[in-house]
Amino acid sequence: MLSRTLTMPASSLMALIVICGCSSAANGPNAADSATSTTPISPVVLPDGGTLSDAEVTSTDSGVQPTECNPIQPYIADTTHVACPPGDSCGFVQPDQDQTNCGPSGMGVQGTGCNGQEDCIAGYDCVMIGQHGSCARFCRVGATFDDCGSEYACTAFLAPAYDGSQEVGVCL
Predict the structure, then answer these.
(1) Is the omega angle on the peptide bond into residue 95 within 30 degrees of 0, that is, cis?
(2) Residue range 53-77, pLDDT digits in tens
(3) Rounded CA gap, 163 and 92, in Å?
(4) CA distance 78 to 96
């Protein structure tokens, strides 16, 4: 899966650097090792209330099986989504960004440097901020949900991405 680019003012970029605890040294080749988040955000909710490491994949029995996953809750299956297997993430298929699929996930959390979504944990995307990638939690744009916690705002992609009729962005 590819990274996506966000358009944001320089003042927001500085806020992101402060939020993720990054230094200018974290923008080098080892950015994934040195950029860490200092503030937790809403976790990916699993069907059994567990953590990502003990996720159980569920399936639906609605006749016509869905083929797309939910980027915000990748381990939950419902009438419109399949559950991704443990160890996978759900991301948007580019360039149209209106379809999703499961793929490998990594260990990166909010603010961790990345080169692609496969570097971030499930429920997160790798977004380009200037010249550098950063893992950011998927969220529902314009919704009244608390997907990002109190210290982040749900920010839409430059090229809008949708899960059904719900626009999806990332917490920044």
Answers:
(1) yes
(2) 333 334 444 455 678 999 999 999 9
(3) 9
(4) 23
**Do residues 110 and 138 make contact, with C-beta atoms less than 8 angstroms apart?**
no
Which residues, including other chains, have CB under 8 Å from residue 24's CB and lie 6 or more apart?
none
Neighbour count for residue 103 (Cβ, 10 Å): 17
What single DSSP character describes residue 13?
H
The helix/strand/coil state of 171 is strand
Instruction: For residues 63 and 150, give the distance between their C-alpha atoms in angstroms, rounded to a whole number.
Output: 40
Q: What are phi and psi of 114, to 5 degrees?
A: -155, 160
CA distance 97 to 72: 14
CB neighbour class for 30 (10 Å; exposed up to 12, middle 13-18, buried from 19)? exposed
**Amino acid letter, residue 39:** T
pTM (two decimals): 0.64
Residues 110 and 135 sit within 8 Å (Cβ to Cβ): yes
pLDDT digits (tens, 9 = 90+) for 12-54: 333 332 233 333 333 333 333 333 333 445 455 544 555 443 3
Structure tokens of 115? 């080169």
